[in-house]
Write a structure and sequence with these properties.
- This is DUF2264 domain-containing protein.
- Residues 25-159 form the DUF2264 domain.
- It comes from Colletotrichum salicis.
- Helix content is 46%, strand content 0%.
- The longest helix has 15 residues, at 118-132.
- The protein has one domain (24-158).
- The chain is built from seven helices and no strands.
- Helix 1 (26-37) runs antiparallel to helix 3 (75-83), helix 2 (63-72) packs parallel to helix 5 and helix 3 (75-83) packs parallel to helix 5 (118-132).
- It is mainly α and 160 residues long.
Length: 160
């Protein structure tokens, strides 16, 4: 059944939005990716650095890391969409989120990962996005690029 407030299909009583997209070509896969990303819109934080989905997460890490996962895990799809020549109306949400989340002066800063920290896992889709979707990097100022470099390169190789 679709939740009227969020537009999400909750449980198994209704048709999942993915089932409404018949995969036949690149365009249909791009539509599927948009179908994945669109429902996240109401759950972005004010500075767009975090996504907090409703309900319990059942994660074993802190809430902030869960919300960082909320923005960076779906970026796999956004990156593929952009790299494949597609467009997405919400791309700016992720760009703003990256700017805010990697800025240590921002209230929504993601924080540096500690040993065994979920943030290290989320660096992978973030790095992939920077590699295949140049529009993300090109949208950042020099200071914002330094912030990204500092967040991704903060002695990660020395972590457990």
């Amino acid at each position: 059944m679709e939740d009227p407030k969020t537009g999400l299909v909750l449980g198994y009583n209704g048709a999942h939005p993915f089932s409404k997209v018949h995969l036949t070509d690149r365009s249909s896969v791009q539509e599927l990716l948009r179908t994945l990303l669109d429902p996240l819109e109401p759950f972005f934080s004010p500075q767009k650095a975090r996504v907090k989905v409703p309900g319990a997460t059942a994660v074993r890490f802190d809430q902030a890391a869960s919300e960082v996962e909320g923005i960076l895990r779906p970026i796999w799809g956004l990156a593929a969409l952009l790299a494949g020549g597609g467009e997405y109306r919400g791309t700016e949400w992720w760009i703003q989120g990256i700017k805010s989340g990697t800025d240590p002066e921002n209230l929504e800063y993601w924080g540096f990962p500690r040993d065994n920290d979920q943030r290290m896992v989320e660096m992978c889709p973030f790095g992939f996005t920077l590699a295949v979707a140049p529009t993300i990097w090109e949208s950042l100022s020099e200071t914002e690029r330094v912030n990204v470099e500092n967040w991704l390169g903060n002695s990660i190789n020395e972590k457990k």
